[in-house]
Design brief:
- The complex is a heterodimer of chains A (256) and B (509).
- Chain A contains nine helices and ten strands.
- Chain A has 256 residues and is of the alpha/beta class.
- In chain A, helix 3 crosses helix 4 and helix 3 packs parallel to helix 5.
- Chain A is globular, with a radius of gyration of 19 Å.
- In chain A, 49% of the residues are buried.
- Chain B is mainly α and 509 residues long.
- Helices cover 78% and strands 0% of the residues of chain B.
- Chain B is built from 21 helices and no strands.
- The chains are: A alpha/beta (256), B mainly alpha (509).
């Protein structure tokens, strides 16, 4: 397998402080075409990190490179190749899914013919045919999430960042979303996802990053994480809890 | 567990939340600049009192003659205030059924929901009293200073009007629920609120236009026909006016009556609150509405896509449309006057210019809030490959285009009367609209479009700045059209001063 010349995402010494440090010198590198899961306890800094990558927050210091583009120096070019899907679907109640996708395509200045074809394909792929011309205000949480995902995919991003994309989805909808994401990864797209559903990370992610107190405390494949936590032959949940507990103990002892 | 969910317990809970909201609103979440804001507010309040003194001192210097003419004038003033309070309370009472913030929690608890309803309705009456008192305070205080403490009874009159308005709103809201169901009640109530708020003032203007050919409401109120048709001074119809004049028995009777009907409305309808609130929750409006369009995707630039989105969202939201209806309604009398007096050599342009500037300034403020702050998918737009300034520019263009389309017929009508006046009015509308948009930019917040109604309470500073800049631009335009250049220049300075103050106290200042 040949790797693209630039990583899909490269973070170098990223810092962000609110009342206390939210992200504290985070560095990581994610290859193009990789499915990467970012895990961490509540308040670990996952969403803050991803919001900085998406250009929704400015880091206090550090570097963000997306497919070789310096995202802080040239945010517009970086956004052109990236899509952001937050946990709460960001759609317009008074637009229907087809209109929503037309609007998103307009924002990314897509060719109209391609945009419409892509929109129809995505609508079908995500099982939204029946709702394609129904205003979003009448859609369920799961359907809204799928519309938001379609919006993220329509402009063919090279990097898709998803913050808890499966929250509130039923089993069927979750399966559809996972299938679409896997398909994209198979086609060379990079997916970075935060999730609290560790089974999903365990099954889908090629590599997993564990973040706590704004720092990357472990990273690698599941086997590598098992080795790092010193617990072989166990599932991701045990590995994750073990790693986080170790970090908490260390932080407490330093504070003491 | 103690006896929770009593009336007092709910009242304390609501009071705590209201107090924290108030503190957050006044401080804007900032810990700095409070002193500057306090001093600025005190100076502003002082100026308003000075203005009230200047207006009232010649009127009250020789005392008030309690004849029919005075009673007609005072009753009309009270009716105007009442219609505004009623408009607000209709909106707030209806919102009590639809607001979901903590309603799901409370309704799913074993607490008695009628207690919550009683407290929330009481809060509506209190809010109406507080807001109206705040606006009327300079005049009431100065009247009391000039002419004696009896004028302080006006605060009780306001409280009574607010209680009556709230009682009517409760009965009206329940009636709407029963007649139209929860799906349509909110939209209908919003439209009624907008119409009620504007009806009296517009009605008087229309009567003045048709009978006397001008926009002054006082022309009708002071007319012999009106005074002749009014009831005898001993009539009970004058009770509120007499209460306002400080007559103790009238004041006591008015307050007792208002308290009694509010208490009766709450007691009679409190038990229905939970049922209607639950029905409101399960009725997402137009949930299955399908788009009728069959057309293919249109080629649009990024800016065009943003503008088209703004226009579609505005067009498809009857609730938001009803919110802007109030401003549009105020344009009806000018339109009528324009139609009636169309032709050169009339003075109608002098009357129309400030009205149009004021109305379009206010309309621009509302639309600008929707476009700038009321973005339902802010992160989508923020993560699009667009320059932030280009996004703002597209949104501002969307607002200005709506203003231009609405203003065009009026400007064309004015052009027939006087090209110069039409030009000046156009400039005034542009200045007022741009000022309102600028204020919305400086006080930009992240909000949902559905929170439109709360924009006025979200930042009082922005609301007042928007209102005063519109008023000053309107006055400047009126004087300019009338040929009083110096007066126009003074009001332009006032308008620019208002903008400078707004900019300084804004979060982006």
């Amino acid at each position: 397998m040949t790797h693209a010349p630039f990583p899909a995402l490269h973070l170098d010494g990223l810092h962000k402080r609110f009342d206390k440090p939210a992200v504290d010198g985070l560095s990581l590198s994610i290859r193009q075409g990789e499915f990467y899961a970012l895990l961490g306890p509540n308040g670990a800094g996952k969403t803050t990190t991803l919001r900085m990558v998406a250009g929704l927050l400015k880091p206090d210091s550090g570097r963000i490179s997306i497919c070789g583009i310096d995202a802080l120096a040239d945010p517009i070019e970086a956004k052109r190749v990236m899509a952001w899907v937050p946990d709460e679907p960001m759609i317009y109640d008074k637009l229907d899914p087809m209109e929503y996708l037309e609007f998103v395509a307009g924002l990314w200045a897509m060719d109209t013919t391609i945009a419409e074809r892509q929109a129809r394909e995505l609508i079908t792929m995500l099982g939204l045919d029946q709702q394609a011309t129904t205003r979003c205000q009448g859609l369920s949480k799961g359907m809204r999430q799928k519309v938001a995902l379609a919006g993220a995919l329509i402009h063919d991003p090279k990097l898709i960042i998803l913050d808890e994309p499966l929250t509130g989805l039923d089993a069927a909808a979750a399966r559809q979303v996972k299938a679409v994401l896997k398909d994209r990864v198979a086609n060379g797209v990079t997916v970075i996802m935060t999730t609290h559903i560790l089974e999903v990370a365990e099954r889908m992610a090629e590599r997993i990053g564990v973040i706590a107190n704004g720092r990357l405390i472990a990273e690698g494949t599941l086997d590598e994480l098992r080795a790092q936590s010193g617990k072989t032959d166990t599932n991701l949940e045990d590995v994750f809890l073990n790693l986080v507990a170790d970090t908490e103990r260390l932080t407490s002892s330093i504070a003491a | 567990m103690t006896s929770t969910a009593t009336l007092a317990w709910f009242a304390r809970h609501e009071l705590t939340l209201a107090w924290r909201d108030w503190v957050a609103m006044m401080s804007g979440g900032r810990t700095v600049r409070e002193h500057a804001i306090t001093i600025g507010t005190l100076v502003f309040v002082g100026l308003l009192h000075w203005l009230a003194y200047a207006i009232l001192s010649p009127i009250l210097a020789n005392g008030v003659i309690e004849d029919k003419a005075t009673l007609v004038l005072l009753t009309a003033m009270l009716l105007a205030a009442f219609s505004m309070i009623l408009s607000q309370s209709i909106e707030q009472v209806t919102r009590a059924f639809y607001a979901r913030a903590d309603l799901d929690l409370i309704l799913s608890s074993p607490a008695a929901s009628q207690h919550l309803f009683a407290v929330r309705i009481g809060a509506v009456a209190f809010a109406g009293t507080a807001m109206t008192s705040l606006l009327a305070a300079p005049f009431i205080n100065m009247a009391a200073y000039i002419s004696g403490g009896k004028w302080l009874g006006a605060y009780l009159v306001i409280a009574a009007l607010s209680m009556i308005a709230t009682a009517i709103s409760v009965v009206g809201a329940i009636a709407l629920f029963k007649a139209f169901g929860p799906k349509r009640t909110r939209t209908i109530a919003q439209i009624i609120a907008a119409v009620v708020g504007a009806a009296l003032l517009i009605g008087l203007q229309v009567a003045a236009i048709l009978a006397y050919g001008n926009l002054s409401r006082f022309t009708v109120l002071r007319s012999e026909a009106m005074i002749g048709a009014a009831p005898d001074p001993a009539s009970v119809a004058w009770l509120p006016a007499k209460a306002l004049l400080g007559e103790p028995l009238s004041l006591i009777a008015l307050v007792i009556f208002a308290t009694a009907i509010l208490a009766a409305a709450i007691a009679y309808h409190a038990g229905e609150f939970a049922n209607h609130a639950v029905a409101a929750a399960s009725s997402a409006e137009n949930t299955n509405k399908r788009s009728s369009r069959k057309t293919n995707y249109k080629h649009r630039t990024m800016a065009q896509a943003l503008r088209a989105k703004e226009w579609i969202l505005l067009r498809r939201d009857p609730w938001l449309a009803s919110q802007t209806l109030m401003q549009v309604l105020y344009l009806l009398p000018p339109a009528l006057l324009l139609w009636r007096d169309m032709g050169p050599n009339t003075q109608v342009d002098v009357i129309l210019a400030p009205v149009l500037v004021m109305a379009f300034g206010q309309l621009a403020g509302g639309l600008a809030w929707l476009a700038i702050s009321g973005e339902d998918a802010p992160e989508l737009v923020a993560t699009a490959p667009l320059n932030a300034n280009a996004v703002l520019r597209a949104k501002i263009e969307a607002v200005l285009a709506v203003i231009a389309v609405c203003a065009c017929p009026f400007i064309l009508g004015l052009t027939i009367i006087s090209v110069v006046s039409a030009g000046m009015t156009s400039l005034g509308i542009v200045a007022a609209s741009c000022s309102a948009i600028a204020i919305q930019l400086w006080f930009k917040t992240a909000a949902k479009r559905s929170q439109f109604r709360r924009r006025q309470t979200a930042s009082r500073a922005a609301t007042f700045a928007e209102a005063f800049s519109s008023i000053f631009w309107a006055a400047a335009c009126g004087f300019a059209v009338a040929g009083y250049v110096l007066a126009a220049a003074i009001f332009i300075i006032f308008a620019l001063g208002t903008m400078a103050i707004a900019r300084a106290i804004s979060p982006r200042g």
